[in-house]
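Quick illustration for those who missed Monday's session on complexes.
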Amino acid sequence: MRVVLKIKRFNPERDREPYWAEYEVDVEPVDRVLDALEYVKWHLDGTLAFRRSCAHGICGSDAMLINGRNRLACKVLVKELGARITVEPLRGFPVIKDLVVDMEGFFAKYRAIKPYLINDEPPPETERRQSPEERARFDDTTKCILCAACTTSCPSFWANGEYIGPAAIVNAHRFIFDSRDRGAAERLAVLNARLGVWRCRTIFNCVEACPRGIDVTRAIAEVKRALLFSSL
Amino acid sequence: MYRGREGMWSWILHRVTGLGILLFLAIHIVDIYLLGWPDVFNKLLFLYRHPVFRVAEVFLVAAVLYHALNGLRILLVDFWVEGTRLHRQIFWVQVGIFLLIWIPTAFLMLSPVVFGR
Ligand code: HEM
Ligand code: FES
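Prediction with FE2/S2 (inorganic) cluster bound:
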């Protein structure tokens, strides 16, 4: 199958502005966009830059804007997209080169919500026990791979890059609703700030974009309700 | 253009209609203020009878109706546990209710313009 791959390229050391480059590649319909990108890099133009690590949808390295939607290049098949595929870097992050973006601000927000268990009570004799129901309470938000597809699909984030963004809220949710954790108040204080959870306008682009199928807007709604009713 | 779905378009429409209503309200406050000068007010009344304004009014009704219905959908998404899972279905139900109210209303509002009574 012959596919035209249109890639938004930018090398800040050489180009004044990003430009579109087109490559014709021969791929199988069941190949992934990542395979097509690798074909370009290995056979057509070695200067093309993009991130990937696991190539199996688990490390979160290769989220990009593919045919107008955020997806993992390693998870979307060529046959789902047709013979013309456009690939752009994630929106709202500074571009380092081609499809490689600067995610430092993204991870700073992740760190701001304290993504680790907080509990100063003396450790029990055995493990900190949790019932299956208590575990299920935050199961959905444990699935996040920090690929940033959600945050960079969000118009609120495009409008204001200081917005904490869906990914950070999802990871806060994972601990706020964990029965073993005692740090909910600290995290809720961060999320209740002006650039916190209230910037969410329930646009649902994040839910469509999430390669892990997390109901992001639901997690955000639960955090909003926890703030409104302080009901954990 | 990011290819968002129902959630994104409903939000864009909500903002457009919200700002549209706000604009109308601002104009409306100015024209009611003109009641202080009955002569001026009466001279401007022809504007309200003009067919262009009558048609525009139908779209004002559309904006208020959409904004109100979509506001209720947002309430469901925010406060009903199933709201985030069903938001797309709720949106299409909302479109149905919108058309059910808007089309007869538009007919009633425009028939004096079209049929002269
Ligand atoms: C008639 C005067 C009204 C005006 C001028 C108005 C205007 C606006 C504006 C400008 C927004 C901001 C939209 C955004 O940030 O995306 C907004 C949001 C909102 N409006 Fe209205 N509105 C009016 C009536 C209503 C009514 C009747 C309802 C509900 C029955 C309603 C429900 C809402 C809700 C729930 C939001 C929040 C939307 C969001 O979170 O994105 N509004 N309105
Ligand atoms: S390369 Fe690891 S998620 Fe795609």
